[in-house]
Design a protein that fits this description.
Elements (H helix, E strand, L loop, with lengths): L16 E12 L2 E6 L2 E7 L12 E7 L4 E8 L144
Parallel strand pairs: 3-5
Antiparallel strand pairs: 1-2, 1-4, 2-3, 4-5
Protein name: DUF3540 domain-containing protein
Pfam families: DUF3540
Length: about 220
């Protein structure tokens, strides 16, 4: 004899449900007191209700046969009241085949006590004014290209280490209020017109040779 397994319809452990429209009376932690037909119900926010209810909201409430009540959705809220989307635990916003855009006229804030991580094939930031404030800042890149109008750097100490440094400018001005030291294997200064050096005291010292060559040499 062949026996076919009987398929039983899954029954809800909570039985029947009734939906009502009410007004949030108060919020007490995870409990929401909702006024429905002159009665106060104690409900919890359903997992599908992303917008966190607040006092005065018109909400849709489901009453289960077990006696439990859940706020399914916020139907209406004061236009001047702020809104909060609350997600318990880890959460992800995904668009597998499209873009995700966040639009705001007043501003966007991202606040966390831990780490913020961004991974992208390409990142573009456009702003009329930008500021970065950090106790420690590290930038690591194989190549950096910058085009700016004016650069101003104020630092207590500035250290630069490079295999090669090339600078090209129309005019260069340097002001050193104390001491200027230069150490090099060899130094070559070339001026097309005039080389002028002024000092209260001038000392030129060489171990082997000092050479001064010119059509005219004036001393004194």
């Amino acid at each position: 004899m062949n026996f076919e397994p009987q398929r039983k319809r899954a029954k809800s452990p909570r039985g029947r449900a009734v939906q009502e429209v009410g007004t949030v009376h108060a919020i007490e932690g995870e409990l929401i007191r909702v006024e429905v037909a002159d009665d106060i119900l104690v409900a919890r926010r359903a997992a599908s209700c992303l917008l966190a209810p607040t006092a005065g909201d018109a909400v849709l409430v489901v009453l289960l046969e077990s006696g439990a009540a859940y706020v399914l959705a916020v139907l209406e809220r004061d236009a001047e009241a702020s809104s909060r989307i609350v997600l318990e635990g880890d959460a992800s916003i995904e668009a597998p085949s499209g873009k995700v855009r966040v639009l705001s006229r007043e501003g966007v804030e991202v606040v966390t006590e831990q780490e913020i991580s961004m991974i992208a094939g390409r990142a573009t930031i456009q702003a009329a004014d930008a500021a970065v404030s950090a106790e420690r800042l590290g930038v690591f890149s194989s190549a950096v290209h910058a085009e700016v109008g004016v650069v101003k750097v104020v630092a207590e100490a500035l250290d630069s280490i490079a295999d090669r440094i090339f600078q090209k400018a129309k005019r260069v001005y340097r002001v050193v209020t104390e001491q200027d030291n230069l150490r090099a294997e060899s130094i070559d200064h070339a001026a097309k017109r005039t080389l002028s050096m002024r000092a209260e005291h001038a000392i030129v010292m060489a171990k082997e040779l000092v050479k001064v060559d010119g059509e005219q040499i004036h001393l004194g």
